[in-house]
Amino acid sequence: MSTRLEALPYRHVLTVPAMGSAVRIARETTEQVLVEWGIGRRHPTVDPALLILSELVTNSVRHAAVCSPTLTVIYAAGPDTFAFAVHDRHPYQPALYATAGTGSGGLAAVVELTLGLGGTAVVRADADRQGKSIWITLPL
Fold first, then answer.
1. pLDDT score recorded for residue 33
2. Pairing between strand 120-125 and 132-139?
3. How far apart are CA 110 and CA 27, in angstroms?
4. Is the pLDDT of residue 100 over 60?
5. What CA–CA distance (Å, rounded) separates 98 from 1?
6. In this predicted structure, what is the pLDDT of residue 97?
7. What are phi and psi of 89, to 5 degrees?
8. Domains in the chain, please, with CATH?
9. Nearest 5°: CA angle at 80, between 79 and 86?
10. What is the mean pLDDT of residues 121-130?
11. In the prediction, which pLDDT does 95 show?
12. Residues 6+ apart with CB under 8 A from 53
């Protein structure tokens, strides 16, 4: 996929405390945002996107909460693309594609599911390298 995120017309940002309830809140917000953007709950990309999002938020809560008391979910969409990122202020930047094919769950499942849907996964460091966003882009 080569969609430029800047070209996606729909945007939404959610910031939540880095605690267990963040997963539920992020999922519910995702469902609401997609419906508002005309992407129905039964669209074949929605369930996998919710699973991917849940894994990323769970990872931020489990591994980054000490450095990052909040996490942010950024959503963007266009006619044929849904993109989202989970951002936290922990400096560790995982090598996403090194996990593919390991079958160990978590990020490996995120990457395998994303690639299986024809999407992309990218880690983008903050300018100060003290945080990162993991961006997932999926075709609709």
1. 97
2. antiparallel
3. 15
4. no
5. 20
6. 75
7. -105, 30
8. 5-139 (3.30.565.10)
9. 100
10. 96
11. 86
12. 26, 27, 30, 73, 84, 86, 136
- Separation of alpha carbons 113 and 28, rounded Å: 20
Pair of tokens at residue 102 = 């390991």
86, β-bridge pairs: 73, 134
d(CA 3, CA 109): 23
Mean pLDDT, to the nearest integer, of 2-16? 86
Extended strands (E) in the chain: 10-17, 70-78, 81-88, 120-125, 132-139
Quickly tell me which residue has 């709950």 as its tokens.
41
Place of tokens 């469902």: 31
DSSP class of residue 79? T
Percent of the chain with pLDDT over 70: 93
Spatial distance between the Cα atoms of 76 and 1, rounded to a whole number of angstroms: 15
Look up residue 127 and give its two tokens: 């300018």
**Neighbour tally for 132: CB within 10 Å:** 23
